[in-house]
Design goal:
Elements (H helix, E strand, L loop, with lengths): L19 E4 L4 E2 L2 E2 L6 E4 L6 E2 L5 E3 L2 E7 L8 E9 L10 E6 L3 E5 L5 E10 L2 E2 L6 E4 L17 E2 L5 E4 L2 E4 L10 E3 L8 E7 L6 E7 L14 E8 L4 E7 L14 E7 L4 E6 L4 E7 L6 E7 L6 E3 L11
Antiparallel strand pairs: 1-4, 2-3, 5-7, 6-7, 7-10, 8-9, 8-11, 11-12, 11-13, 14-15, 15-16, 17-25, 18-22, 18-26, 19-20, 19-25, 20-21, 22-23, 23-24
Length: 321
């Protein structure tokens, strides 16, 4: 209930966001109170969405942005806004908008080698909300997070995504660590074109690194089926053995110099997945495959050890020749 007002307008404060109200007016004089005016419906604007940064990914040509509504009641749509940032951190005065986004995610086409500030607004009949807290996206290379819900139960990943705990031992690493036959997937890479990342390994670690479709059987070894491809390192008494597995089969290859940093180059359009010894700029193997779906980067260990993944980096020229 409001106090008496002598003006021809008033401000109604403390309304809930994204809520509908009925408003009407009565006039009062010494004789009494008039009948109510015709009721007007008013919808307040929504609360700003919340971008889920750990579920966002990017590549040189695009970024996939995901967010939560931030509203109890449904909203009509969303608006994604982006501004390019200069090398000195200054923001462009030009804001590009993508309107009428129906769901809580949006794939945005971007320019390679740029840096963007991206925010989201929720929209209803009352208008757009304030901007969400922005996130910064760089399109230097393909960037993805690890999906904690796909990790082996022995593996726990800290909130910042850069430190992994196994038992009581804390291991600071640049991106991830896997221990004792555990595996984890990276974000799905849902953008056509070229993608590249690198993995640091060591001679004492048996590992599998590669890609897999989203519907790949989780209890199957990477490379053992028709829905995954991988490079595998096996320790034997006499030598280090490397396999390039798809559907359980590998060509007979001999690698004479053990790689310590492996480049992985995925090209959806050409249908290739290639592996390189980064330090030697040496091509190791290429799978030729017609990808029917998008894939997840995959990382697995067959014995105690560690892997370190580097993404968001520019692909070397030799990776896509």
């Amino acid at each position: 209930m409001m106090d008496s007002i002598n003006e021809t307008h008033c401000t109604v404060a403390d309304l809930l966001p994204n809520a509908q109200y009925e408003l009407w007016v009565t006039a009062t004089n010494t004789t009494g109170i008039s009948p109510a005016s015709e009721k007007a419906l008013y919808m307040t604007v929504p609360s700003p969405p919340v971008i889920k940064q750990r579920e966002c990914s990017s590549c040189p040509e695009a970024a996939l942005i995901r967010w939560e509504s931030g509203n109890t009641n449904p909203v009509d749509s969303y608006m994604v806004e982006l501004r390019e940032m200069g090398a000195d951190g200054t923001e462009s005065n030009i804001t590009e908008s993508i309107v009428a986004v129906p769901t809580c995610q949006c794939l945005i086409q971007l320019q390679p080698g740029r840096r963007y500030l991206i925010s989201v607004r929720a929209v209803n009949i009352g208008g757009p909300s304030d901007r969400s807290e922005p996130i910064t996206i760089t399109t230097t290379g393909t960037f993805f997070y690890l999906l904690e819900d796909t990790a082996h139960p022995c593996l726990s990943i800290s909130e910042d995504g850069f430190t992994v705990f196994y038992g009581d031992e804390e291991l600071p690493i640049s991106a991830m660590c896997l221990y004792r036959c555990v595996a984890v997937l990276g974000d799905l890479i849902p953008v056509r074109g070229r993608h590249y990342w690198e993995v640091e390994v060591d001679d004492g670690t048996e590992f599998r690194i590669g890609v897999a479709y989203e519907d790949t059987e989780r209890n199957s070894y990477l490379g053992a089926n028709s829905t995954s491809w991988c490079m595998r390192h096996i320790l034997s008494p006499s030598r280090h053995k490397y396999e390039f597995l798809h559907n359980g089969w590998s060509p007979d290859l001999r690698i004479t110099v053990n790689p310590v940093r492996i480049g992985v180059a995925l090209d959806y359009d050409r249908g290739t997945l290639s592996f390189f010894n980064v330090n030697l700029e040496q091509h190791l193997h290429t799978f030729h495959c017609h990808f029917r779906n998008y894939v997840h980067p995959c990382f697995s260990l067959d014995n105690p050890g560690a892997l370190t993944v580097h993404n968001g980096i520019e692909a070397p020229e030799y990776a896509f020749i």
